[in-house]
Amino acid sequence: MIKLLKIEFKKIRTYKIFWILAGLYFVFLAAGIAMAEFILNNMVDSMNKHLPIPVPHVNIYFFPDVWQNITFFASIRYILIFPAIIMIILISNEFTFKTVRQNVINGLSKAEFILSKLYIILMISVILTIFLSIGAFIIGISHTSELSTKLIFEKAPFILGFFITILTLQIYGFFFGFIFRNTGLAIALFTLYTFIAEPVLYYFLKSPIVFKNDISTYLPINAILRVNEYPAIPVLKKLMGLNLQESITFGSCMLPLFYSAIMIGLVFWTMKKKDL
Q: How far apart are alpha carbons 42 and 46 in whole angstroms?
C-alpha cells in the first residue's frame, strides 16, 4: 500500500490542476460552513415577513447538533463534486497520456494500478474527514456554553456518514474516469447525471403520474446524499413537516457502499478485458 501511494504522490506532487481543484474545494467547503447559519437566518427573516408568528433565528453550531449540521452542509452535491472531478481527471489522464501503459511496463500489474487509485481515494477521504472533524469540534466548543463528554460526542457518528459520502462519491468519479477514459467526456457525463439526469428521474419517479413506489430512494447519487439527509434544525420540522434525521442508519450507509463495490468490480473486469 505504501509503495503504491508513493507512486501516486509522485504523480500528483507537481500536478497543478489537482492542487487548484483541491484548493477550490477547501475554499468552498469552508465558506459554505461559515456562511450556512447566516444564509439560513436570512431565509428565516424573509419568511417572517409573511408569517403571523415570527420564527426565531437558528443556531447550527452548538453541540451535539454541530456534527450533523456541518456534515450535512459539507455533503451538498455542489461541494462534493470537486473531489469526484479530481478523481476523474487523475484517472482519465492516465489513459490520455498513456502513463498506465508505462506503469504496467515498469512492473505494476493492472490490479495494483487500480488499487493505487483506490488507496488515493481512501487517503483523501480520511484527510477530509479529519479536517472536517477538527473544524466541527472547534466550532462546537466555541459556540456551546455548557460542555460534557456525552454532549460533545452524542452525534459524532455523523462524521462517519460524511466519510462514507466522500468516499463513495469519489468512487463514482473513479468509475466514470475508468469507463470513459476521456477527461472531458467523463466529467460532462458525470456532472450531467449528478445534476440533471438523476434529479429529473428522482422527481419523475415521485410524481403522481407514476405508480406509487420508493425507487427514487435507491438511485445512486440520492443514496449518497441520504446518508446525511437533513440538518438538525427544528424549524424545518415545524414549517415543512420534515421528519428530521436523528442518526445515521446502517442501511443508508450500506447502500452507497454496495453501489461502490459494484463499480469497483466493473472497473477490475473492464481492465482485465480491455487493452491499455
A: 6
The band of 239, judged by pLDDT with boundaries at 50, 70 and 90, is: low
Contact 7, 117 (CB under 8 A): no
C-alpha 24/C-alpha 30 separation (Å) is 10
CA–CA gap between residue 53 and residue 59 (Å, rounded): 19
Cell numbers for 249: 442508519
Distance separating alpha carbons of residues 148 and 154, to the nearest angstrom: 10
CA–CA separation, 216 vs 218, rounded Å? 5
| Other Cβ atoms closer than 10 A to 108 | 17
Q: What is the residue extent of each domain of the chain?
A: 2-273
CA 183 – CA 177 distance, rounded (Å) = 7
Contact 66, 60 (CB under 8 A): yes
168-209 pLDDT, tens digit per residue, is 999 999 999 999 989 999 999 999 999 999 999 988 888 777
Q: Which of 225, 226, 242 is nearest to 234 (CA)?
A: 242
- Spatial separation of the C-alpha atoms in residues 105 and 113, rounded to whole Å: 12
Rounded-to-integer distance, Cα 85 and Cα 17, Å: 11
The amino acid occupying position 77 is R
- Using an 8 Å Cβ cutoff, are 80 and 171 in contact? no
pLDDT one-digit tens code per residue, 21-79? 888 898 888 888 888 878 777 777 776 677 677 767 778 888 988 998 899 889 888 88
Please give the C-alpha separations between residue 234 and each of 47, 76, 237, in angstroms, as whole numbers: 15, 19, 5
pTM above 0.70, yes or no: yes
CA angle 31/86/199 to nearest 5° reads: 75
CA-CA distance, 207 to 173, in Å (whole number)?
A: 29
Smallest Cα–Cα separation from 66: which of 227, 257, 194, 232? 232
